[in-house]
Specification:
The complex is a heterodimer of chains A (271) and B (255). Helix content of chain A is 79%, strand content 0%. Chain A has 271 residues and is mainly α. The longest helix of chain A is centred in the C-terminal third of the chain and has 35 residues, at 175-209. In chain B, 39% of the residues lie in helices and 23% in strands. In chain B, the strands form 2 sheets. In chain B, strands 5-6-7-3-8-9 form a 6-stranded mixed sheet, sandwiched between helices. A 3-stranded antiparallel sheet of chain B has the order 2-1-4, with helices on one face. The longest helix of chain B is centred in the middle third of the chain and has 18 residues, at 148-165. The radius of gyration of chain B is 19 Å and the shape is globular. Chain B starts with a strand and ends with a helix. Classes of the chains: A mainly alpha (271), B alpha/beta (255).
Chain lengths: 271, 255
């Protein structure tokens, strides 16, 4: 998840690489076939795991009446809202703590203490404080996602090469211009790792949050399926989560490519 | 142009600069030589306004720019953006392009620093300094990290820019030959004190084989505190082009 593009840049000859890429597709495919055979022949009980064919059937079922799309949109909305809050709050706190000593003293210590709290243990509190509506779910996502964003942006700001800051002073940049042109771009690569991490965590938290008194969302769908022993739907839910994780990863990679195009590793792979 | 009187700088218990006087005429090219830890960088940082003196007075023009040993380019900005950074007005980008063209980089305007060679990056840093029209250019061992060939070309470039822009230049270096090739005057600093000021009256353009070069070299090395024996050794090693041989001979002499 955190692999550096520079490291993943294979140096093997192209032909050899292509043959190995085939293997990457082949092995999951083989597993899938084994799974199907296992279910069809009865080695795997239908009470343990649903067959891939059955999973596909219920997936089509759920999408044809639009219920899956509905639940997915609701979950996406919660993650989006939670992430938005986390980005604004975590980003502002990191800027305050990163750019001023006073800010660091006031903000950093409590943040470092709070980040060690297991977020899921806050669920009872959030129900008491915010009830059982949308607010506690979004708030849980926001709280979980805020720390990686805060921590990485803060350390990114503090990690900017002091020689570049000195140079900015010599050429007479104002404080605002220095933050915009030197400090923020310098902190961005680290901060993006935090964003990636936050997005991963927010899905994790949402599954748990949506199993508490929800009437929609992927978590609710799975909770409901559990009550009715619909293992096929549970598997569909798992697959949705896996796909979302992948999509989020692709999104952040794309973002990195756009924002960090100046990195030699990107520049070289582009030409 | 530059007038420093009785400058001292103390870091804790060590005295980095001890009652230093320094004068630079307008348009003068001065080289400041010294061993590492002699205080030469502290002096440059004081002139650049990056370090405050403990005692003494420092007069420098406000229009001063620094080029460091590392180019200090922002890796997320192209060469042009780096040079134009902080310039006011509409023509900033054009000014930056013109400055890059002047240092011979018209073909690398949109290159990111990560793709520039060491010499190109240092020339970009030079363009960034020149585009601000400084009266005083402070150079902190700007060629030390470059290979010998690139360094020779940079010497020529610096000399022509100095003439064209009528700059005052203070070049910090530990390379005696570099000082003799470029400077009107060479100062030697040792343990925070100015110990010598030697005029270099050689005809320009200069080269290492010029009459008088070797004498100046010897005088400067003596002023730095390199003994006569060391001078001969390093001269011999220069002829053979093997800097390591100095070290070898030292260890033999000591054994």
């Amino acid at each position: 998840m955190l692999d550096d593009p520079a490291l993943s840049l294979s140096i093997a000859p192209a032909a050899k690489r292509r043959s190995r890429q085939w293997l990457r597709v082949l092995s999951p495919l083989a597993l899938l076939i084994l799974w199907q055979i296992g279910c069809s022949t009865g080695w795997i009980s239908s009470r343990t795991l649903a067959a891939p064919s059955q999973v596909i059937a219920s997936f089509i079922d759920l999408t044809s009446d639009g219920s899956l799309q509905h639940h997915l949109l609701v979950s996406l909305g919660r993650v989006a809202k939670g992430m938005a809050v986390a980005l604004v709050v975590g980003g502002s706190l990191a800027l305050l703590a990163g750019l001023s000593r006073t800010g660091e003293y006031v903000i950093d210590a409590p943040m470092q203490m709070l980040r060690t709290l297991p977020v899921l243990a806050l669920i009872p509190f959030f129900i008491i404080w915010f009830g059982i509506g949308e607010v506690p779910k979004v708030a849980l996502v926001a709280v979980a996602a805020v720390f990686p964003i805060y921590l990485t942006l803060y350390s990114g700001i503090r990690g900017v090469d002091p020689k570049l800051i000195e140079l900015a002073k010599i050429i007479g940049l104002s404080r605002g211009a220095m933050i915009r042109h030197v400090i923020l771009p310098g902190a961005l690569p680290t901060a993006l790792v935090g964003v990636r991490y936050s997005l991963g965590i927010s899905w994790l938290i949402l599954v748990a949050a949506e199993q508490v008194n929800a009437s929609s969302g992927i978590g609710y769908l799975m909770n409901d399926a559990r009550d009715f022993m619909r293992i096929d739907i549970l598997v569909v839910g798992l697959l949705i989560y896996a796909c979302l994780g992948l999509i989020v990863d692709i999104l952040v990679r794309w973002l990195e490519r756009r924002l960090l195009g100046w990195r030699p590793s990107f520049v070289n792979s582009a030409t | 142009m530059v007038n420093v009187r009785g400058l001292s700088r103390r870091f804790g218990t060590t005295l980095a600069l001890d009652n230093v006087d320094l004068t630079l005429q307008s348009g003068e090219f001065v080289a400041l030589l010294g061993r590492s830890g002699s205080g030469k960088s502290t002096l440059l940082r004081t002139l650049a306004g990056l370090d405050a003196p403990t005692a003494g007075t420092v007069q420098v023009p406000a229009e001063r720019m620094v080029v460091f040993q590392e180019p200090r380019l922002l890796p997320w900005k192209t060469a042009t953006e780096n040079v134009a950074l902080g310039l006011k007005g509409r023509g900033a980008r054009d000014q930056a392009r013109a400055a890059l063209a002047e240092v011979g980089l018209e073909h690398r305007l949109d290159a990111y620093p990560g793709t520039l060679s060491g010499g190109e990056a240092q020339r970009t840093a030079l363009a960034r300094a020149l585009v601000r029209d400084p009266k005083l250019l402070l150079l902190d061992e700007p060629f030390a990290a470059l290979d010998a060939l690139t360094r020779m070309r940079m010497h020529g470039l610096i000399e022509s820019l100095w003439k064209r822009h009528r700059l005052s230049v203070l070049l910090i270096t530990h390379d005696v030959d570099e000082a003799i090739l470029l400077a009107d005057r060479a100062l030697v600093i040792d343990k925070g004190r100015m110990v010598a000021s030697i005029d270099i009256g050689l005809q320009r353009p200069r080269d290492l084989g010029q009459p008088g070069f070797f004498t100046l070299r010897k005088r400067l090395l003596n002023a730095i505190g390199v003994t006569d024996a060391e001078v001969h050794e390093s001269a011999a090693s220069d002829l053979h082009g093997a800097p390591d041989s100095t070290v070898v001979q030292h260890s033999i002499a000591m054994a």
